[in-house]
Design brief:
By secondary structure, the protein is α/β, with parallel strands linked by helices. Helix 3 packs across helix 10 and helix 7 crosses helix 12. The radius of gyration is 19 Å and the shape is globular.
Amino acid sequence: MSITRREAVLGALGLGAAALSRPALAQSPAYPSRTVTVIVPFAPGGSTDFVARLLSQQLSAQLGQQFVVDNRAGASGTVGQAILARARPDGYTLAVVPNGTFAMAPFMFERMPYDNATAFAPIGMLATNAMFVCVNPTGPYKTLADLLQAARDKPGTISYGSAGSGVANHLGVELMLDMSNTSMLHVPYRSGAQGVQAVLAKEVALSFVDSVTAVPYLRSGEMRALAVTSAVRSKEAPDVPTVAESGLTGYRASTDFGLFAPAGTPDAIIGQLATAARRIMLSTEVREKLAPLSIDPVGGTPEEFRPYAAQEMEKWGALIRKRNIKPE
């Protein structure tokens, strides 16, 4: 099915007519009464996986049934999303999905394995995770200005790694290049971890690395951060300026995580999950576990999530069209 801009934005606003017309409730009030599967559409070890496992552990404790993470990686997260789209709308299959999948991927592919406008019911925004502009510490770049000037001097020769075409750490670089009127060579890998190893091995000059992965390398001195992509500096690396502070005013790119169910999931279950997820993400215990990794909890509602998703899709859809970004 072709994804049009109108369908994509409609999907963000209500994530489909089906999401707005869920049945009142035809389910036992004792939800959950068995194990719940939480799909993560990426490999284990990254920030999406970390957030999903932390949430699932807490949901298991609070709701009295096991919430089990199921990693289903591939195609910028759309493989896992397709599994969610096909699942029964009974609350027993959920997904923790980054904006690279729900707000970027619909513009990357001419045909999708699901209808982004009707397939999903938003439960809430969970957290946001900045990325660091990381380089090898033995390399020539000390500041982001150094890097961008080198890119201007030799257009298209400096290489950067990503976790694949269309994911957040690819498009975050593309936004930086667009705003700075520079060009670099994109080298996509199968995972963010491979992109990190490429920086360490000097196979590429840089990569945007999510804070879950980057912070330990920054502390050990194995990587150097030139900037952070969030609107404000990271508490874990306060000496690292933001990209905006480094000369690109208004720049912001982060990995933001949402919790989804299949469209048609009863309102009562959506509400129960949203309330539980919000309570968990804003708890002192979870805040303390997220803080060392520079992940900021949000704990939003379905009503708050829809306009946010619309804004994200508008922003990244415009960039993808402008720069003619295609899957590789």
